[in-house]
Amino acid sequence: MKVHYIAGVAFDSNVYLLEDEDPVLVDTGTGSYADTALEEVSNIVPLDRIGRIVLTHSHYDHIGGAKAFQEATGAKLYMHEAEARPLMGGDISLVVSDAVGRRLKGLEVEPLRTGQKLKLGRTTLE
After folding, report:
1. pTM score, two decimals?
2. What's the Cα-to-Cα distance from 93 to each of 31, 33, 63, 90, 121, rounded to whole Å?
C-alpha cells in the first residue's frame, strides 16, 4: 500500500489517499478546495476507482468536503458509529461548522464499529 498526502489549505484538514487494490480516501477537508484536492487524487488513481471515504471524526474541517468528494467518486462515506449516528440524525452540533461560518446538513454515513476492519487489497485498515 502507498499512502499519498494531499496537504490541506487554510482551515482544511489534510486528505490521505490509501492506494491499494481498493483505494480509500481519508478525510475531505472543508470542501473549499475540493476541486484542487480531487485533481491531485485523480493524478494518482482514477476517481471512479475510489469506493470508500473514511472520515476520522465529525469536525467540519474533516467532513465539509464529503458531499463534493462523494459526488466526484461515487464512494460511500464511513465514520465511527459514535459520531455517525448523531450526524445522520441531524445533530450537527458535533460538526462545529459555525466556527468557520458554515452550515452542514446531515450526511449518509456507514457506521463503523470499534475493531471493524476494511480490506483494501493487501492491506487491512482498522
Report:
1. 0.90
2. 19, 23, 13, 9, 36
d(CA 110, CA 80): 8
- Beta-strand (E) ranges in 1-126? 2-6, 15-19, 24-26, 52-54, 76-80, 110-112, 118-119, 124-125
CATH H-level superfamily of 2-112: Ribonuclease Z/Hydroxyacylglutathione hydrolase-like (3.60.15.10)
What is the rounded distance in angstroms from the CA atom of residue 15 to the CA atom of residue 29? 7
Q: Would you state the cell numbers that stand for residue 5, as one nine-digit string?
A: 498526502
Quick: pLDDT tens for 58-103. 888 898 899 999 999 999 999 999 888 777 766 666 666 555 566 6
